[in-house]
Amino acid sequence: MNLRNIYDSRRIWKIVLITVSLILMGVFLLISNHLVRDLAKQERERMEIWADATKELASMSNEPNAMPTDVDFVFRIIEGNHNIPVLLVDDHDNILQYRNFRLPEKVDSLNPMQLSAKNRQYLEKKLKRLKGSSNKIVIKIDNTTTQYLYYEDSTVLRRLAYYPYIQLAVLLLFLAIAYFALISVKKAEQNKVWVGLSKETAHQLGTPISSLMAWTELLDSMGVDKDIVADMNKDVQRLSKIADRFSKIGSLPEKELEFINEAVSTSLEYMRNRIPKRVTLTLHLNDADNCGVMLSPPLFEWVMENLTKNAVDAMGGEGSIDITVKTKGDIVTILVKDTGKGIPRKNFKTVFNPGYTTKKRGWGLGLTLVKRIVEEYHAGKIYVKSSEVGKGTTFAIELPRVVHD
User: Fold this and answer.
1) pLDDT-flagged residues of the chain (< 70)
2) 8 vs 5: CA distance, rounded Å
3) Dist CA 269 CA 320 (whole Å)
4) What contacts 362, CB < 8 A, 6 or more positions away?
5) How far is CA 148 from the centre of its chain?
6) Is residue 402 within 8 Å of 294, Cβ to Cβ?
7) Pairing of strands 319-328, 402-403
C-alpha cells in the first residue's frame, strides 16, 4: 500500500467515525425529546385534574345544596401542585389564583387582591406570554361562567428540555478537544518522521558525494577531458546542494534578505537547461527593484524547482510555463502557471497531502515539502489559485515583503 492509499484510508475512517458520532448524537436527542414530550403530557394531565378540582370547588360555591364532595380531597389536589406555575383567570383576564411563580417582591398571602403593583405587573406579563402558548385549559364552570387555566412547564421539564443540548455541546467540545489533540500528536509524529528521514538522507548522501569529489580530482589529475570533469563537478555540486537541503529540514534555517527578482531567476537557472526543448519557460519579474524577502536560498530554490518540475510532468514534456512575480502591499506573490492536465477543484487542498500523486512513480511528497518550506520556514502561504482540467494550473506563493531602500 502506497502513501496515497494510506491517506485515503485514514480519510475514509475519519468520515466513518464522524458519521457514526452524528448518528449516535441524533439518536440521543431523539430519545431525550421523546422523554420531554412524555413528561409534558403528564404535566398536562396533572393540570387537567387541577382544573377539574377548581371547577368542583367553584360548583360547590355556586350550588350549596349540591351533593357533598370530599372537600379535603379537592383541596389536597389544588394544594399539591408545588412545581408547576399556574395562573387562573376569568373571561376578562382578571387573575383569580396564581401558584409557584417567583415574584419580584415577597408576598405574605396568595390572595390576588393583595398583590403589589410590581407583582401584578409581573403576573400580567406572564399571562400575556402564556396566552400565546398551548398550555391553556378552558374550565366551564356553568352556562355563564368560564375560567381559563394557564400554566408554565415545570423547572424539571425545562431543565430536561435543555439538558440534551447541553450534553450535546459538552460532547462536541470533548470531541473537538480530542480531535485537535490527536491531530497535534499526529503532526508531531509526522514532523519526527520528516526530520528523521531528511537527516538520514543527507547523511547517506554525504559519503558517496565525498567519494565522487575525490574521483573528479583524480580524473582531473589523470588528464581526462576537462569539459567532462567540469560536467561531473556540476552534478556533484548539485548532489551536495540536495544533501544540504535535506539537512536543513527540521531545524530553523538561516534566512537572508534577498531581492525577489534575483532569487526567482537564480532558482530557475538549473531547470532551464534540464527541461525539454518543447517546454517554454517564461519569467515575468516584478517592476520594483527594491522588493526583498527573507529567504533561505537553498530551500527556496527547492520550492521553485519542485513546482517547475511538477509543471513539466503535468504537461507531458510539452507546453508553456509562465512564472510571474508581483507585489501588493506587504505581500510578494509568485505565480507558477502551466498548460498541463489541470487539477479537479475537489483536490485543490488534497494535492499538498502526503502520498497524493498522479504519477505512476514517486511517493507524492514533493508538494508536501514545498508547503512545509513555504509556510513553516518562511511564514508564507501556498495554494492552488486556479485550475481547469485539460487546460492547466496556477500555483500561488505568498511571502512577506521587505522593502529595501
Assistant:
1) 1-11, 13, 58-80, 109, 189-195, 197, 200, 203, 245, 248-252, 288-290, 355-365, 403-405
2) 5
3) 16
4) none
5) 51
6) yes
7) unpaired
CA distance 280 to 17: 48
Q: What is the dihedral of CA 289, 295, 296, 301, to 10 degrees?
A: -60
For residues 195 and 191, give the distance between their C-alpha atoms in angstroms, rounded to a whole number. Answer: 6
What is the CB neighbour count within 10 angstroms for residue 363? 13
Torsion of CA 27, 32, 38, 43, to 10 degrees: -160
The DSSP symbol for 92 reads T
CB-CB contact of 396 with 383 (8 Å): yes
Of how many residues is the chain composed? Answer: 405
Question: Is the Cβ–Cβ distance between 290 and 403 less than 8 Å?
Answer: yes
Q: How far is residue 338's CA from residue 319's CA, in Å, rounded to a whole number?
A: 7
- Cα–Cα dist 305/319, whole Å: 17
101 Cβ contact partners less than 8 Å away, ≥ 6 residues apart: 85, 87, 122, 123, 126
DSSP 8-state assignment for residue 84: S
pLDDT at residue 403, as a whole number: 65
